[in-house]
Design goal:
Layout (H helix, E strand, L loop, with lengths): L1 H24 L4 H12 L13 H18 L2 H6 L1 H25 L4 H12 L3 H11 L5 H27 L8 H24 L1 H10 L3 H21 L4 H12 L5 H26 L2 H6 L1 H25 L4 H10 L5 H12 L5 H23 L1 H9 L5 H4 L14 E4 L3 H12 L4 E5 L2 H9 L4 E3 L5 H6 L7 E4 L4 H14 L4 E6 L5 H6 L4 E4 L2 H14 L4 H13 L8 E2 L10 E6 L16 H4 L2 E7 L2 E3 L13 E6 L1 H13 L1
Length: 650
Amino acid sequence: MEHNMFIHILFMLVIAIVSIAVLGRLGLPAILAYLLTGVISGPSGLHWFTQQQVHFVAELGVVLLMFTLGLEFSVPRLWSMRRTVFGLGSAQVIVTTFIAGGIAYLLGQNLVAAVVIGSAIALSSTAIVLKLMNEQGWLRRRHGELSISVLLFQDLAVVPMLILLPLLASDGTPMSLNGILYGLLTGILAFIGLMSFGKWVLPRIFDEVARSRSNELFVLSTLVVALVTGAFTQWLGLSMALGAFIAGMLLGESQYRRQLEADIRPFRDLLMGLFFISIGMLLDFNLVLQYWWQILVTLISVVVLKIVIVYGLLKLAGEHAKVALSTAISLGQVGEFSFVLLALAVNYQLLDNEISTILVAVAVISMSCSPWLIRHSVDIAKKLKGGKPSKAMVEQTVILPASEDDDFVVILGYGRVGQTIARFLKTEAISYIVLDLDPTRVTESRAAGEPVYFGDACKMGILKRVGIRQASMVVVTFAEERQTEEALALSRKLAPDAKILVRTRDDSNLTELKEAGATQVIPESLEGSLMLVSQVLYKCGVPLPRIIKRLESERRNHYQYLHGFFSGTETDFTLDLLHAVSLSTSASSVGKKVADIPWSQLDVELRAVRRKGAEIEPAPDDWVLRRNDILMLVGKPRSIEKAEDYLLQG
């Protein structure tokens, strides 16, 4: 029996591999390959497995999917797009749910089933739309911005849906409004409790985990956090996926976000594959053949309904007709989270198997058609509306992160050399992003407002997340030879056209590094650091006379920019350190002038003051310190500690 189970699992994996390869050649998403694998190996096909046999493992896939969704849920990004997200996005979800659910109710479904059906139909495929939009280069266009806004709100709307589904499961008893309100209150209290836990406890846990420098411990800790928070919300009678989403959202603003995403992705992809295979097992071909015309009618009705609703809302908002239509066509499919809602609804006995089968079939077919519809959405809009939309309408850009600027530089390693390069890039207003594995250094530099992230530059997933493919230059500053070689190889593979500059201690392996893809190799020392800076600025387009002038200025000032660096876990305490001190409301130095602080007695130097994103260097003597000011201090570690205590407590 166990031998047969092993053989069946092996054959199922082979079917999945072949299906992904074949459908990938046809330009179809991998989700459809997993669904096809489930159909073939499930009750409707060879009957190797039942949906219940893979349900538990598949549910873990949903938990990890919601965790990674929480990691990508950027509150600042959401706030910057709040008008379209909460305006257009909320209107689309509410109107679509109401109309689709109302039609289902009129066709004989009960109120609970109608709500589930309307919610499932309201969602679109975030994975498919974003992937195809990115391939077409449309994320900066107006219809790309609008599509992202709607998808962001849909992802956010999944959370209350996950809270409501377990509450709507009445187990044969009449549904109580008081019970639902009590459940919602429980969900809110759980959210507050997890938020508190995430704010005060999780960062400290991952600080300690990162200091261990054990990749296995980091991965294990990530999985445990996702599953424990999910188990906590399930214990409260809510969904496991809700707890995992909250945990991901809490860690999404930390410096460990990109490392967490890279570490958990293999587990998520594997388990999500099993989840979609289990969904495929729900497809009963006998029912599909029996209700084929209902499926076809429902498919056409759902796609047309979603297109009409989005188009109408955008027209009411004053958008250009062609932009509105191309956006509506892009969002016409049913999304992957609809499978999650339908699967949970069936498990909670909120939906009949027949209805679920019809809706799953509709979702599968709509997702199969969506790549063609999205790629031709602009052409279809032009043909239906005639002429070309104005450039201002179609190509209106959104505020994008620094990783998509033209002069974008990736710095791998944020030690002395990396920080020196970053400072010169900042003076020339050249955008950059940094990866470093020292948790203390990352925390210190992020507190000072630097774009530094915790991540292993020797992992392909991390480099992809920071947008290395769009970078014009990569600077490798590691001291370890093995780390340098691995980072160089991956960087050259992912960014074949980028300039790659490598710092080494000496020229012993200069030839090997150039053969591995380095554009230029620079040996170490203070002058070597300045040489690397000059090459970075020159290749970023800064005029040579300005570079020479700046370098000569640094030499005249005794290499001021080459002294005082953010400390890390392994710090040489004989060197001057750079430390950021943030002034709270109760800090004793708030309200005092810079001249009133005894800097010489404290044996530290005030390098600069940062206020509301602006940097004053040097700060004048009559500068009055305010709360939330960030003071950049340079000095020996003991002096820095004494100065910080004086500034905060007096």
